[in-house]
Amino acid sequence: MDLGLDVEERDGFAVLSVRGEVDVYTAPRFRERLIELVTEGKHKIIVDLEGVDFLDSTGLGVLVGGLKRLRSHDGDLLLVCTQSRILKVFEITGLTKVFSIFDSVDAAVGGGSGGAPTT
Amino acid sequence: MAGEVIELEIPARAEFVALARLVVAALAASDSTLPDERIDDLKLAVSEACTNAIEAHDAAGSAERVLVRCQAGADSLEVYVEDRGHGFDPSELPDHPPVTDPDRLKFERGLGIPLIRALVDEVDFSPTAQGTSVRLVMRLGVNGSEPT
Number of A:B CB contacts under 8 A? Predict the structure, then answer.
């Protein structure tokens, strides 16, 4: 099962685009990549979930851990997601109240500088 | 599909969880009364149950396989996920702080059982001789799970 993890820079943010399925098998690679970014000094991260086909609680755990790690560095982790089946997982677990979720990377870049998230 | 029973035994390793959820989703998709959204819900619930089963096997050092059994009835689709790794007791899971509490970020795990409960129409956890059996029920012809 493939998991795509691509990183690009956008206006001071590291944008981590995730593609494929995030579950107990692939989540360790996702966690490792996030930790690498933080270790490299990237403390403002946007995780783009638009290419994700499936995300379970293991993936949520990676994001919660990433947010905790970034906040300890006075950073932040923003999400991009418009897919209802993925958003539903955040809604059920109440994590829409924990994460700022935007409908595009552009909106997140703007929102992370003071704009408003979609959720 | 009614009356059919399909059993799948997967090695208790993380890479096989995707296979289990794909098989169950394919079976669920063969029932035209189950909308795609409900199939996605079941797929996620199966993934969570299999993940818990595999973790139970890991904790017990068990090399046994995890059993996934799908049973299609006239009114419902039932999926059993059975571990042989001494199981787990969902009532012993710690309560998480509210999501608005900063301490909530200390908890990266423990979201699977609440997800399962929210996604399927019925769920129960039963001890077996070797571990735990998780029974997931999706009612056919129902557009969404009942409010909890």
Answer: 70
